Amino acid sequence: MNTAGFIHSVETFGTVDGPGTRYVVFLQGCPLRCKFCHNRDTWNRAQGKKVTVRELLLEFNEYQEFYRRTGGGMTASGGEPLMQAGFVSELFHGVKNSGLNTALDTSGYASEREIDSLLEVTDLVLLGLKAVDSQEHKELTGVSNEKIMAFIRHLREVQKPVWLRYVLLPGINDDFNHADRLADFVRSFTNIERLELLGYHKLGAAKWELCGDEDPLKHISPPDQNQVELFRRRLNDLGIKKIY
Fold first, then answer.
1. What class does CATH assign to 4-237?
2. pLDDT category, 208, cuts 50, 70, 90?
3. pTM over cut 0.90
4. CB contact set of 51 (below 8 Å; sequence gap of 6+)
């Protein structure tokens, strides 16, 4: 309970990161450098707030009955929560002891030996797939997707439920070729329960400036609803039906 970790912030009324209403812990630190990151200020773990598992669970327990009524629980997001797998694992143990559910919002960038104990107390994985193609993944995030693909295959082996998230970047990954590859990918993983299409947005642009960086995608505008719908229909035509 006295294990400490570094967090960016906490949201006590989260409604988009898993089922029901949720207590969302945004962990500090991330090994990826995504060009479309909307939490640029979470990259450096040293800039986070140091807290203990006990402190977070005390606050979580204040809202416990509210989460219970909505079928909610706790979500670990970031940043990249797998960078602090031991801390998150102990945190999730506390949540599970309360009879509530847990969700891990991750890029999947980790080795198997670091996450097995965490997955044992994780009910749902919200996996942000940046790119199916390894080279494109490296161009968008600064790293290849080899570790991520190994993680996803491991999730399939242990049949851990996954909600897959895919950010549509106009002119980069929103054409039918990308839709076809994404559909092939989704069909190959029986544990993927749903696909969430997320339109790229500019809500995090100011954070890049505050961190002293230039927004690498400042030339790109968010997709309009028609662009998203065309991509969705293509996936539907390819047999992918559970799209949100």
1. alpha beta
2. confident
3. yes
4. 4, 5, 6, 7
